[in-house]
Description:
- By secondary structure, the protein is α+β, with helices and mostly antiparallel strands.
- The protein has two domains: 4-263, 2-Layer Sandwich (BirA Bifunctional Protein, domain 2), CATH 3.30.930; 293-377, Alpha-Beta Plaits (2-Layer Sandwich).
- The protein has twelve helices and 16 strands.
- The strands form four sheets. Strands 3-7-8-12-11-10-9 form a seven-stranded mixed beta sheet. Strands 14-15-13-16 form a four-stranded antiparallel beta sheet.
- Helix 3 (46-61) crosses helix 9.
- It is globular.
Amino acid sequence: MSTLLEVGGVKISRDDVVRENDPTNNVPDSIFSKIGLQLHRRDNHPLGILKQEIYSYFDNNFPGLFNKFDNLCPVVSVKMNFDDVLVPHDHVSRTYNDTYYINAETVLRCHTSAHQAELLREGHSYFLVTGDVYRRDSVDSTHYPVFHQMEGFRVFTPVDWEASGVDGTSYAAMDLKKTLEGLAQHLFGNVEMRWVDAYFPFTDPSFELEIYFQGNWMEVLGCGVTEQKILINNGRTGSTAWAFGLGLERLAMVLFDIPDIRLFWSSDLRFTSQFSSGQLGVKFKPFSKFPPCYKDISFWISESFTENNFCEVVRGIAGDLAEQVSLIDSFTNKKGMTSHCYRITYRSMERSLTDEEINQLQGRVRDEVENKLNVTIR
């Protein structure tokens, strides 16, 4: 019997998302298992606490203005995820190496911007969208294939900027920077900030906001003035707008001193009991640090090999016991064949692992890598 979930009023079964025999599908069970968990909607979870703190900032500074959405379905069309926000057809994010495709026309959203166009068409001019997003990625302490974003969007009409003496684009950019500097101060206190020019397909000009925090410059978010084509395509001709996007895990790891992104998914009471609704920035107290176990694997790669595909195999077998995957050696022989050697770090955050279970996992990794990735184990 297929597992049935309901997210944002949409019923989703495993068979809707995981299709082993469909060559246009690359969603594993390990990813399907995360759909519907919605950590950002848990009031006593660091991500939920941070979300509510950002909501408080906008509610206090713009009372009643911003509509909030945090339960929109993560299954979206390619059009919503890429075309509607002007992602070029040759952009790397569209590849099967980077994105989870359910079929050729449907994906698990890569960003909360996937809902931008539909909300504009529904008549919303000020909104915050929070949700789980999905990207095939490397394995380490700061990357995970599922994470959480918040998107902010605000539309202006000529009435807003005509008296200001500047054009609509300049007006939107000034309002954007003022709003987000205020948000950074709300979350991090009286910190030094700087704006860095950036590139995003859906905004121009585009910026990143960095803060000087704990002795380092840290990127907080990306943002910009919305491309006119997006506004025109969605019935907002003559308007300007700004948009921003931030990763909740990235900020929560800093604010709560959480050292490993896998911890956000932990149900261990030693983790979950440390956080309470409304308590932003409570410093995480590490429980026992269990020893790592290192296993190396070497193989001759083919032209189709990608590291993301290898990481996906490791995650699919070891799950959150895979702490890190790192390339430690690469060479090409006289015949032009290239060999990679990867070191896999296995570690549980909750218990000591046994040699027997690690050897079993490594054996399965070796079998799956050879079967699925068209490589030859050395």
